[in-house]
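We modelled the chain as a single entity of 73 amino acids. Its sequence is:
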Amino acid sequence: MKNTGICTKCHSSEIIRIPGNVGAYGAGNNIIAGRTNFSAVKVTRYICASCGYTEEWIDNPIDIEKLKKYYSD
């Protein structure tokens, strides 16, 4: 949905984009990759307004690397 603007489930083009955010005490749509909120990686949601199907994406490639580093074995 992020790349095509089309729902992969019902093929609707009514897509809602909800940007990731970081609130107090880690609230919001994010993944913590450290000890503080400053380390949080924002996760953007894409929602089909027709069927409700959702996808979550990390938009920033640097944030993906941060998650790899923090969560790898």
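As a brief sanity check on the tokenised model: The mean pLDDT is 93. Residues 21 and 27 are 8 Å apart (CA to CA).
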